[in-house]
């Protein structure tokens, strides 16, 4: 398995991000939330992923960037869960939604549980 997070997997398209927030469905595993929509772009990757940490919970950019780094890292190491069982193309946005400062191990465990919950959804 290739444990990378290359540019072509990063969610950058403004139209895709807008469709995520307007028509996207969501699945949660406290404190993480995954919003997803089927990607209809031609030649799109199997998964396009973006991360977000709200300014509401962490006022300092240093703190927001720290948790975004952790979310990207947990995605990178556990994306095999999403790729193995997935035949459709999805655009995903990954949110950290609490003021609590969870450890890396706790966030990684929640990420695995969230990805498994996403895979188990009826599609």
TrEMBL record:
One Pfam family from the record: Ribonuclease_P
InterPro entries: Ribosomal_Su5_D2-typ_SF, Ribsml_uS5_D2-typ_fold_subgr, RNase_P, RNase_P_CS
Signal peptide: none
Enzyme class at the top of the EC tree: hydrolase
Source domain of life: Bacteria
Annotated EC: 3.1.26.5
GO function terms (MF aspect): ribonuclease P activity
UniProt keyword list: Endonuclease, Hydrolase, Nuclease, RNA-binding, tRNA processing
Reaction(s) this enzyme catalyzes, per UniProt: Endonucleolytic cleavage of RNA, removing 5'-extranucleotides from tRNA precursor
The protein's role, per its UniProt record: RNaseP catalyzes the removal of the 5'-leader sequence from pre-tRNA to produce the mature 5'-terminus. It can also cleave other RNA substrates such as 4.5S RNA. The protein component plays an auxiliary but essential role in vivo by binding to the 5'-leader sequence and broadening the substrate specificity of the ribozyme.
Stated family: Belongs to the RnpA family.
Complex and partners: Consists of a catalytic RNA component (M1 or rnpB) and a protein subunit.
PANTHER family to which the protein is assigned, alphabetical: RIBONUCLEASE P PROTEIN COMPONENT (PTHR33992)
Full protein name: Ribonuclease P protein component
Gene this chain is encoded by: rnpA
């Amino acid at each position: 398995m290739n444990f990378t997070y290359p540019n072509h997997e990063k969610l950058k398209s403004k139209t895709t991000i807008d469709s995520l927030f307007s028509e996207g469905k969501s699945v949660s595993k406290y404190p993480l939330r995954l919003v997803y929509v089927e990607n209809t772009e031609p030649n799109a990757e199997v998964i396009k992923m973006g991360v977000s940490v709200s300014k509401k919970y962490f006022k300092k950019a240093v703190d927001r960037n720290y948790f975004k780094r952790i979310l990207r890292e947990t995605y990178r190491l556990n994306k095999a869960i999403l790729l193995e069982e997935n035949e459709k193309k999805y655009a995903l946005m990954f949110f950290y939604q609490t003021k609590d400062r969870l450890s890396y191990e706790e966030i990684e465990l929640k990420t695995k549980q969230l990805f498994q919950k996403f895979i188990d959804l009826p599609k």
